[in-house]
Amino acid sequence: MKTPFYKIAVLLILIISLSIYFLKRCPIEDYKQTAFFMDTRVDVAVYNTSKKQAETVIQAIFDEMQRLENILSKHVSGSDVNRINEAAGRVPVTVEPETILVTSRALEIAELSSGAFDPTVGPLVELWGWGTEKLKVPSAEEIDAVLPLVNYKAVKIDKDNSTIFLAEPGMKLDLGGIAKGFIVDRGREIAQQFSVKALFVNAGGDIGIMGKKPSGEKWRVAVQSPRDPQKWAAILEIEEGCVATSGDYERIFEEGGEIYHHILDPEKGIPAGELASVTIVASESMLSDALSTAVFVLGKDKGMQLLENLEGVEGIVIDKQGEIHVSSGLGDRIEIPQDE
Ligand code: ADP
Ligand code: MG
Q: Does residue 339 surpass a pLDDT of 70?
């Protein structure tokens, strides 16, 4: 006797639905997605979870990153940072808790680095034209005119009232050296809330890692050779934590045969000149992000000294001659490929 057509159809639908259900639930090795926030490509990968959970978590992470960009970016009109800058020298501005948190951390790192990291570099960044199409080398007079506005000590945070005030008119807060680190930290926190077993986030060189790789191996993070994008200068083996790199090759322009980059020395008003790249390993991405900029400005001697004094923070400093300097705590967690 022939099976009626509708029975076969029902069976087929059942099989297909069940397959889709199990495919979605089955643990997958890794699941990756990419988006753009803060002018930067952000890659997120979650490991050892179902496809459905991976999609949910990554969406939650991207939603939060978008919300944070809207608060912390100077390129979004009406952001907390823009409102603070517009009210400079006039009134304190009520802001979101995250703006208080990131700005407080930025001021702590400014203090730690004796102002080598300074979140009030905004007027200098603008003078050089970063973030616009019109990049140019300013005159010495132009630089001298804005240098007094670069002064992290004139940022007044009132935690009780949730306000931030820039004491001088013309001052500009610029969280570009720390905000990407913060969105990476938030990504890790969200993954933890969703009980994800392992996560890897990379926001343009600010890397955050949570949990163990499904294979049980350690995570390996490669540090690019500053003068050859095809080569690795070092490879780091890490369990968990954050790695960030600041380099003189990341954002650049050329004028009169000279190359200029975007990490500015807040004291001199020009790009910091001694180093080619700095990589920092820490347990918090805000810290690795801001410290990579700070050490880059401080240079090898003062920068290494700062790293040696900080608990739980390690780093790799590559100077303009290509020499690699490694902080004492990295031990056998670092591999330096020999040039063939
Ligand atoms: P990238 O943004 O390429 O990862 P960094 O993390 O080093 O590089 O941050 C550089 C950004 O930080 C610049 O684009 C600028 O907005 C800001 N910045 C530049 N110089 C300093 C400084 N000395 N202190 C704090 N922020 C800085
Ligand atoms: Mg950085």
A: no
Whether the pLDDT of residue 213 is over 80: the answer is yes
Can you give the pLDDT at residue 137?
Answer: 97
Are the C-beta atoms of residues 191 and 46 closer than 8 Å to each other?
Answer: yes
Burial of 33 (0-12, 13-18, 19+ CB in 10 A): middle
pLDDT of 237 reads: 94
- CB under 6 Å to ligand 1: residues? 117-119, 121, 125, 130, 174, 176-177, 204-205, 246, 250-251, 262-264, 266, 289, 292-293, 297
- Summarised one tens digit per residue, pLDDT across range 23-43 is 555 566 789 999 999 999 999
Domains and their CATH numbers in the chain:
74-166 (1.10.3980.10), 218-340 (3.10.520.10)
Give pLDDT, residue 97.
98
Nearest ligand, measured from the Cα of 287:
2
- Distance between CA atoms of 125 and 166, rounded to whole angstroms? 17
User: 260 Cβ partners below 8 Å, 6+ apart?
Assistant: 128, 135, 137, 252, 253, 254, 271
- In DSSP terms, 209 is beta-bridged to 200, 241
Return d(Cα 325, Cα 280) in angstroms, integer.
12
Residue 75, classed as helix, strand or coil, is: coil
Whole-number pLDDT of residue 20: 65
The answer to whether 269 and 260 have CB atoms below 8 angstroms apart is no
Cβ partners under 8 Å of residue 94, min gap 6 = 161, 162, 163
